[in-house]
Amino acid sequence: MNAPADSADVRRRNLGLVLRYLDAHGPCARTEVAVGTGLVHATVTALVAELIDRGLVAEAGSVPSAGRGRPRRLLRLVPERVVVLAAQVSLESVHVMAADFQGHVLHRESAPHHAPYGDPRALAAVIGCVVRSAEAAVRDATPHAHLAQLTVAMAGPVVGPAHLVAAAIDFGWHNTDLRALVAVELPLLDCPVDVVNDANMAALAEYHALAADGVEHPDTVAFIKADTGVGGGLLVNGRVHSGSHGMAGEIGHLPIALDGPDCRCGTRGCLATYIGPEPLIHAAGLDAVAESEGGEAALAELDRRLRAGDPDAVDALEAAGHALGAAVLGVSGVTDAGEIILGGYLATWASWLRAGLDARLAGRRALAPDMQPAITFGVLGGEATLRGAFQTCRDALLDDPTSVPALPRTPVTVPSR
């Protein structure tokens, strides 16, 4: 009785296998796809025909055969067939990116949200407004594209099949169905809406970007980022491991001092109270800038002062490096991660963090140098979260190409006699 479902699952898997091969190796011929995937040629021919019907694959000309046979017809992906929308919520703004299947950015937009503390509906309304604008721009530019997914990334663990935001500490709400609130604001959006953890998305994106640059990752990789907040992720064999409650890798609220500053999460001495944007802005003497112009402007001024050699800014980053080192020791001791990737301004300001970081790690490195994680720095900066959200959607489509509907068939006109 399960044969039809099993057959459909096998077909989806095989379609994904062919699409992934073309993504990695195309343009190439059907015979190459058959050899590369291990599928028989007749099966590949049928699967390719379906992918062409769905607009995901197209013929790309032909090349001569190696022997005397007919020329080989090449196949290529059609990246403009699919568009993904990714949104990122920061403390002050909502950022949206629309990209095609190969990651070519079609549209970008940002807007301040001014969301009142404790009011997720106000934030959802701004997300809806920015997404509607992005969708309209995409529809104008690519009217025949399939809108595959809207993924909203924000701070806080996201749990359960409903993808509830379990604790958005910086926004003052918990166990919130942000996906449902956004869907209410977008009743005409004809695609699934998902909510994900922003740091997990950044971790995924930096992992792939570094791999593309030649970094060979170990099986367990931890990620720590700081930008508009402090977060992290844990990757096992290249996949996000979120733990039992969506909390794996939530490094920002790892206590590193028993008598440290109070944290809004309910405890004291969390990493975020040392290397988060507000503590760094305060330590560098930039509170007045933050109050008058906002946190993002204050961080930009901190960057300027660091590069100018301002002693207060440099001291603030060295102290942050010590705190970061304490967190690295804790994470590596619990996870035995072979690599720790630092992202956000932890990568941008690596030169100023390194003195404190190395001083904190020196004792352990001297005792067991072969057992310490490699420290690498991310390369995507502020792009990481949106790129990770895009990558997640793209991977889902590669796993199941049947989520893209077939193209409408052009009616055949029969000439009258």
TrEMBL record:
Domain of life, per lineage: Bacteria
InterPro entries in the record: ATPase_NBD (IPR043129), ROK (IPR000600), WH-like_DNA-bd_sf (IPR036388), WH_DNA-bd_sf (IPR036390)
Matches recorded under Gene3D superfamilies: 3.30.420.40, Winged helix-like DNA-binding domain superfamily/Winged helix DNA-binding domain (1.10.10.10)
PANTHER family reported for this sequence: BIFUNCTIONAL UDP-N-ACETYLGLUCOSAMINE 2-EPIMERASE_N-ACETYLMANNOSAMINE KINASE, ROK (REPRESSOR, ORF, KINASE) FAMILY
Stated family: Belongs to the ROK (NagC/XylR) family.
Protein name, as recorded: ROK family transcriptional regulator
The species this protein was found in: Streptomyces prunicolor
